[in-house]
Amino acid sequence: MKTCILGTGSWGSAYARHLAHKWDDVVMWGVDDTAVAHINSTGTNPDYLPDFRMPPNVGATLDLKVALQGSEAVFVVVPSQAVRGVMAKVASTPGLPKGVPVVNLAKGLEIDTLKRMSEVMAEELKQNGHENPVAVLLGPSHAEEVALEMPTALVLAGDPAFDWEEWQRLITGPYFRVYTNDDVLGVEISSGFKNVIAVAVGICDGLGMGDNTRGTVLTRGMAELARITVAMGGRQETCFGLAGIGDMITTAISRHSRNRNFGEAVALGREDPSKILEGSKQVVEGFYMAQAALKLGEKFGIELPIVKAVHEVLFEEKPPHKAIRDLMARVPRSEADAER
Ligand SMILES: NC(=O)c1ccc[n+]([C@@H]2O[C@H](COP(=O)([O-])OP(=O)(O)OC[C@H]3O[C@@H](n4cnc5c(N)ncnc54)[C@H](O)[C@@H]3O)[C@@H](O)[C@H]2O)c1
To answer: For 244-264, how does the pLDDT look when each residue is reduced to its tens digit (9 = 90+)?
Structure first.
């Protein structure tokens, strides 16, 4: 059985190592010729997943047609803002086998349209006459820990007309447990949103605040996530699952988390937020999702105070300590108030 992974970054590489235990042939496709050359010549990807070697049945190519041909599943593991462009290439390149699932692993929304990744993928496929089922595979899954084969659990959520239970088995492994969930919207919104809360926790960490603050930001962040998810038609319980609270806790407390680390660097204030990102080869999704989440709140008429505060710090030059002070000075209200 052959599968292909689009993207040769950290998560694509760790996921390729995992799939290689179950699948005969794992082909990674990318645009980064250095990463592709490293994977093929030394079985490593030093810029994205240092210290790990790929099994011999993992290869890489710059040729999308070669990657797609004969694949029984396609996994998309590029930053969310790149998913449409990559899917447009997939949809117009001869080689995508008919009916095979296309599964997104990126966490975010398209900023301009506020569309979820499954919607973006389905649109691009449909425009080119493809009828492949679409899904997402999301949850708390730091690449470094998956590469170390530490127990990890994710959620597979997709097209209701397709049998995802068979796919659940095909991608499950001894240290990689996969749950299904029919609330695709809830899973996708949760996965993107948690990165904004992780940035908020990082900002508080950078300001030297403690565990009380962390617990407060996470809990009130969950309240914001549940509000927007329900307003959009998703289920509240999905927010309390792996893709929601599971990933939010993991991302907000982890030393591996780029989003938390980014927030901390912003609060330490050595550079402008966008300058900090320029120095990183790897994507920080929370930077983009803060913009999308703010727009979502406006669109659905939902108050999202933490999202707004993160946005003010990242894009409106508000000093982080002032953003925290303003959050704390909001009108007192009942915790049971579901509106704000
Ligand atoms: N790193 C993790 O632990 C992890 C875990 C779960 C989910 N994710 C999500 O997976 C997605 C990818 O994360 P990552 O950590 O692998 O990112 P990364 O920055 O390490 O790698 C991104 C990859 O995408 C490629 N890429 C970027 N723009 C492209 C384009 N226009 N066309 C083709 N390829 C392009 C880059 O060359 C690189 O190979 C993100 O949405 C992230 O939130 C990451």
So the answer is: 999 999 999 988 899 999 999
Query: CA distances (Å), 196 to each of 33, 81, 212, in order?
Result: 31, 16, 19
Q: Domain 184-328: which topology?
A: N-(1-d-carboxylethyl)-l-norvaline Dehydrogenase; domain 2 (1.10.1040)
Q: What is the dihedral of CA 324, 327, 332, 335, to 10 degrees?
A: -100
Q: Which atom of ligand 1 is nearest to the CA of 258?
A: 1
The domains of the chain are located at 2-180, 184-328
In this structure, what DSSP letter does residue 270 have? S
Three-state DSSP at 29 gives strand
Instruction: Identify the residue whose C-alpha is closest to ligand 1 atom 21.
Output: 9
Q: What's the whole-model pTM score?
A: 0.97
Pocket of ligand 1 (CB under 6 A): 7-12, 30-32, 35, 48, 77-80, 82, 85-86, 105-108, 141-143, 282-283, 285
Distance 336 CA to ligand 1 centre (A): 38
Note the pLDDT tens digit of each residue in 287-311: 999 999 999 999 999 999 999 999 9
pLDDT in tens, 19-34: 999 999 999 999 999 9
The share of the chain scoring above pLDDT 70, in percent, equals: 99
Task: Measure 86 CA to ligand 1 centroid, in angstroms.
Answer: 12
Q: How far apart are CA 114 and CA 188, in angstroms?
A: 12
Pairing of strands 25-29, 2-6: parallel
What's domain 2-180's architecture?
3-Layer(aba) Sandwich (3.40)
Strand pairing category for 74-76 and 58-61: unpaired
Which residues form the catalytic set? Answer: 194
